[in-house]
């Protein structure tokens, strides 16, 4: 009876708070990893989005992409601005749930649980470098497969063959690296077709492979990882950051002021009753 109740409970989406219109999962890092592992052990088809400021602003601008995040099973707070927003919205113990940390934590937990993992997307050279590091850090990890995808749209026949390959591999977790918003749209389109937890990791693959450096811990904690990345890839990231960060700051401040105004109104109404 207990096992049945646990199975039903893990199929319910974890709690969340809305940040500039999109839901962001409000659970500590370890709790989010535990939920994902339970889904993976059960072979459930789930979509996990690793959200940052760019992703939430894209959702604000694009209603179709907003629907993708609304329907996702988990939207983790990657980036300190989302963590700070959750704390200001009442989730006091929220910590960061970033892509690279998710990758390493789930590889570790999958090794212990005997859950197979699949790496989808990116480039062959990056996947091979990842395999080398994974074999060193997690020698008992069961890698169900590593498969780059073409930059062009896949034909229906190719897509069906890919789905069959993923399901035949027995993977409980599929790490997806296609970039935002392509990977989130891909996961949404393959929900209930791929029998695994699909996790969009974006830039985590090249960082884990050693092609890009990760910001030091104190830089990440201070919320300046975006600046560290900008200094590494100014041409690619300048346009993205200049068009998303100001929008996010404006919308976040507007949301917090609205929440504060509602709280003051409720306190006033309670005092006058």
Folded structure, characterized:
The chain is an alpha/beta fold and 273 residues long. The protein is 58% helix and 15% strand. The chain is built from 13 helices and eight strands. It has helices at 2-10, 29-42, 53-61, 63-71, 80-88, 99-113, 124-137, 156-169, 182-189, 204-208, 217-221, 225-232, 234-272, and strands at 16-19, 22-25, 46-51, 74-77, 116-121, 143-147, 171-177, 197-200. A six-stranded parallel β-sheet has the order 4-3-8-7-5-6, with helices on both faces. Strands 1-2 form a two-stranded antiparallel sheet. Helix 3 (53-61) crosses helix 4 (63-71) and helix 3 packs across helix 13. The protein is globular and about 65 Å long. Mean pLDDT is 90; it is low at 1-10.
Task: Provide a quick synopsis of the model.
The protein is of the alpha/beta class. It is built from 13 helices and eight strands. The termini are far apart.
Shape: globular
Please list the strands of the largest sheet in the order they lie side by side: 4-3-8-7-5-6
Give the ordered list of helices and strands: HEEHEHHEHHEHEHEHEHHHH
Biggest pleated sheet = 6 strands, parallel
Pfam family, one: Glyco_tran_WecG
Keywords: Glycosyltransferase, Transferase
Organism: Floridaenema evergladense BLCC-F167
InterPro entries: WecG_TagA_CpsF
């Amino acid at each position: 009876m207990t096992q049945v109740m646990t199975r039903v409970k893990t199929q319910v989406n974890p709690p969340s708070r809305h940040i500039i219109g999109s839901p962001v999962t409000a659970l500590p890092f370890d709790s989010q990893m535990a939920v994902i592992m339970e889904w993976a052990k059960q072979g459930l088809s789930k979509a996990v989005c690793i959200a940052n400021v760019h992703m939430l602003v894209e959702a604000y601008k694009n209603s179709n992409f907003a629907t993708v995040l609304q329907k996702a099973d988990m939207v983790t707070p990657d980036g300190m601005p989302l963590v700070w927003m959750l704390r200001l919205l009442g989730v006091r113990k929220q910590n960061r749930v970033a892509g690279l940390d998710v990758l390493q934590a789930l590889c570790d937990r999958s090794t212990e649980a005997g859950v197979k993992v699949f790496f989808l997307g990116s480039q062959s050279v990056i996947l091979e470098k990842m395999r080398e590091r994974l074999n060193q850090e997690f020698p008992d990890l069961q890698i169900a497969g590593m498969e780059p995808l073409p930059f062009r749209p896949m034909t229906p026949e190719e897509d069906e063959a890919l789905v069959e390959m993923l399901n035949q591999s027995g993977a409980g977790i599929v790490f997806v690296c296609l970039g935002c918003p392509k990977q989130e749209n891909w996961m949404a389109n393959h929900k209930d077709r791929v029998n695994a937890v699909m996790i969009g990791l974006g830039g985590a693959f090249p960082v884990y492979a050693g092609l890009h450096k990760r910001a030091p811990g104190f830089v990440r904690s201070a919320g300046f990882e975006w600046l560290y990345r900008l200094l590494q890839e100014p041409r690619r990231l300048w346009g993205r950051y200049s068009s998303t960060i100001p929008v996010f700051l404006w919308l976040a401040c507007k949301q917090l002021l609205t929440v504060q105004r509602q709280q003051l109104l409720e306190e006033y109404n309670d005092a006058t009753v």
